[in-house]
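F.,

This is the one I mentioned.
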């Protein structure tokens, strides 16, 4: 029962995070880029991320606690290789997100507050590149847990 509840929360974290990245990268950003100029577009994107990123922190907490819980329940030694790969990829994704949050995202907010659009545009570009990496890593983690035994 506790194991199933852990898995449910684990999936909730993964769906929230990957779903948000999907929406931001492939739906919101292209439309906003084609329709708005930097002084409108950059504060909008900073605001959107300001609302999405706390949810990512919550997802990371859920993924980490439930993921390590499930791994411990089965035992590191007996766990399939895919589970270890997921742990490794997950830790990399968490580190990349932490970097985005305390680096480029913080700078993006400062640049937007100062109406420094070239700097804000550069920071947004950095964030998008790392979020794309995490999007790919997230799907690789899921593939690993499903296909590697
Ligand atoms: C610290 C990092 C992580 C650890 C230790 C971890 C651990 C695990 C374990 C042990 C399972 C297998 C559960 C089972 O089959 O009974 C699992 C399944 C899964 N994990 Fe993770 N995980 C981590 C990060 C992530 C991340 C970052 C994502 C995606 C964003 C993710 C998405 C999933 C999904 C979709 C499943 C499939 C659940 C199923 O079996 O149907 N996990 N994880």
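My design for it:
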């Amino acid at each position: 029962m506790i194991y199933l509840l852990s898995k449910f929360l684990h999936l909730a974290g993964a769906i929230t995070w990957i779903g948000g990245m999907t929406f931001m990268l492939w739906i919101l950003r292209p439309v906003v880029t084609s329709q708005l100029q930097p002084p409108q577009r950059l504060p909008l994107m900073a605001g959107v991320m300001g609302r999405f990123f706390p949810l990512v922190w919550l997802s990371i907490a859920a993924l980490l606690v439930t993921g390590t819980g499930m791994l411990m329940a089965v035992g590191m030694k007996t766990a399939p290789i895919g589970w270890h790969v997921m742990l490794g990829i997950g830790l990399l994704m968490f580190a990349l997100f932490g970097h985005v949050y305390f680096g480029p995202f913080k700078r993006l907010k400062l640049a937007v507050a100062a109406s420094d659009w070239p700097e804000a545009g550069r920071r947004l570009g950095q964030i998008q590149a790392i979020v794309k990496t995490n999007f790919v890593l997230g799907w690789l983690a899921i593939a690993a847990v499903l296909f590697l035994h």
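The chain has one domain: 2-147.

Talk soon.
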